[in-house]
Amino acid sequence: MINEELVRKVIAEVLQEVAASENVESASVTARPSAPAVKAEISMEMTEKERATRGTDAREVVVAIPPAFGTEFDATIVDVSLADVLRQVFAGIEEQGLSWRLVRVYHTADVAFIAHQAAKLSGSGVGIGIISRGTTVIHQRDLAPLNNLELFPQSPLLDLETFRAIGRNAGMYAKGEQPVPVATKNDPMARPKFQGIAALLHNKEVKALDRSKSPMELQVRFR
């Protein structure tokens, strides 16, 4: 069930920005719709290092995120901690004996293009893109941006077990294997239930973009 208080807060913020009024109280969009919450067992600190370049290690998978991931937002659309999301994706990659790099992509909030950028930077040619609400794509360098290896569009249905499996499959693709696609739940009501909130959160994510900035490599520390 959608949290009505969240809807009111998000709408209030949108109206405030449209009216450009300094007297309207700013609303927070860091809350999420009601759902079985996954409390973060860890927190993370991300530090920008240098401009991301194409890797030379054929046994790496690059994970790419947009600017609002971990800054404006700290959880997915169903309140799964973004720190835990990354931790599980990395663990899945490591299970396959591969390494990972984390990159922040500044020029787009489209998960397909974020994932494709990750693949182009990856030494193995395989990358993962994750946006703040949880939508995820596994991509390969030589594929067209909208033609990916695996797409996970129903972010409200993605849990930590699924994110770990995503990392695991990406590692298998990077090794030249053909894994069975990650099984996901399907709820035909998920889209209409969360579509409005997803659109508002996307707008917030787009505002954090810097289209003149190159992808940057990140150092992440879990605590």
Topology:
Blueprint: H1 4-19, E1 44-51, E2 60-65, H2 82-95, E3 99-104, H3 111-121, E4 126-130, E5 136-140, E6 150-152, H4 160-174, H5 190-206, E7 216-222
Parallel strand pairs: 2-3, 2-4
Antiparallel strand pairs: 1-7, 3-7, 4-5, 5-6
Mean pLDDT: 87
CATH superfamily caption = B12-dependent dehydatase associated subunit
CATH topology: Rossmann fold
- Low-confidence runs: 21-40
Helical residues, percent: 25-40%
Number of domains: 1
User: How much is the radius of gyration in Å?
Assistant: 17 Å
> How would you describe the shape?
globular
Kindly state the number of beta strands.
Answer: 7
* Helical stretch tally: 5
Give helix and strand order, one letter per element, not per position: HEEHEHEEEHHE
First-to-last CA distance? 32 Å
Class derived from helix and strand content: alpha/beta
CATH class: Alpha Beta
The CATH architecture assignment turns out to be 3-Layer(aba) Sandwich
What's a concise summary of this model?
With 223 residues, the chain is an alpha/beta fold. It has helices at residues 4-19, 82-95, 111-121, 160-174, 190-206; strands spanning 44-51, 60-65, 99-104, 126-130, 136-140, 150-152, 216-222. It has a single domain (32-36, 46-222), classed as B12-dependent dehydatase associated subunit (Rossmann fold).
How would you characterize this protein structure?
With about 220 residues, the protein is of the alpha/beta class. It has a single domain, classed as B12-dependent dehydatase associated subunit (Rossmann fold, 3-Layer(aba) Sandwich), CATH 3.40.50. It is built from 5 helices and 7 strands. The protein has a 7-stranded mixed beta sheet with strand order 1-7-3-2-4-5-6. Helix 2 packs parallel to helix 4.
